[in-house]
Amino acid sequence: MGTRGRQIVGLDVDDLVKRLNSALADEWLAHYQYWVGSKVVMGPMKEAAIAELVQHAADEMRHAEMVSLRIVQLGGTPVLKPEDWYRISGCGYDAPEDPFIQKVLEQNIRGEQCAIGVYDGLVRLASGRDMVTYNMAQAILADEVEHEEDLQSLLEDYESMIERARGER
Ligand code: FE
Ligand code: FE
Ligand code: MG
After folding, report:
1. Which of 55, 92, 112, 133 would bridge 148 by S-S if both were Cys, CB 3.0 to 4.6 A apart?
2. Is residue 112, in this structure, part of any structural domain at all?
3. How many angstroms separate the alpha carbon of residue 136 from the centre of ligand 1?
4. Distance of CA 13 from the midpoint of ligand 2 (Å)
5. H or E element: which one contains 123?
6. Number of domains composing the chain
7. What is the pLDDT of residues 90-139, one digit of tens each?
8. Does residue 2 form part of some domain?
9. How far apart are the first and last CA of the chain?
10. Which protein residues have their CB within 5 A of the ion that is ligand 2?
């Protein structure tokens, strides 16, 4: 823990660490959801989906790294047991039990929309009170916004391909 670094935080540090641990659990679950999704996804355009899912899995793990470093800087302990991830996660885990591309994309879009809410909340909370957390949260928020758009445009491409194949346009 950096003592002066912790002193300048104009927020309840224990509460902030709790929120960051919830975000950390979200990131690990999102990482696994993307990672396992990339293994099981099937259907038309699956190669494009796999490329995106693999890239996002790596991004979510990088986010876990960023969030855990900030927790340690604040004198907290990153969640130690995977069994606690479900309990403290805000966004949860959506198992890709139906591996069809459309379903997997829709699940991950919902996950990204949840993540956008989490980091938008952290950016607003930290604004003017904790610039280090603010910078971290806004960098992750920008990635989550990009992730949502990547998946939605992939889903649109998939849907327009299906429409064409049906001769609807
Ligand atoms: Fe993330
Ligand atoms: Fe993401
Ligand atoms: Mg992407």
Report:
1. 112
2. yes
3. 11
4. 25
5. helix 101-126
6. 1
7. 999 999 999 999 999 999 999 999 999 999 999 999 999 999 999 999 99
8. no
9. 61
10. 144, 147
Three-class secondary structure of residue 77 per DSSP = coil
Residue 25 lies in a domain: yes
Question: Closest Cα to residue 75, out of 10, 27, 23, 3?
Answer: 3
> Can you give the length of the chain in residues?
169
- Find the ligand nearest to 34 CA: 2
pLDDT, position 148:
98
Q: Which of 104, 107, 133 is nearest to 115 (CA)?
A: 107
Helices (H) and strands (E) counted in the chain, each on its own, are: 6, 0
**104 vs 95: CA distance, rounded Å:** 9
Q: What CATH number is attached to the domain comprising 95? A: 1.20.1260.10
Contacts of 147 (CB under 8 A, 6+ apart): 56, 59, 108, 112, 115
Q: Percent of the chain scored above 90 by pLDDT?
A: 92
The two structure tokens encoding residue 147: 């992730």
For residue 98, the CA-to-ligand 1 centroid distance in Å is: 23
The enclosing H or E element of 103 equals: helix 101-126
Residue 6 domain-assigned?
no
Domain range for 115: 12-165
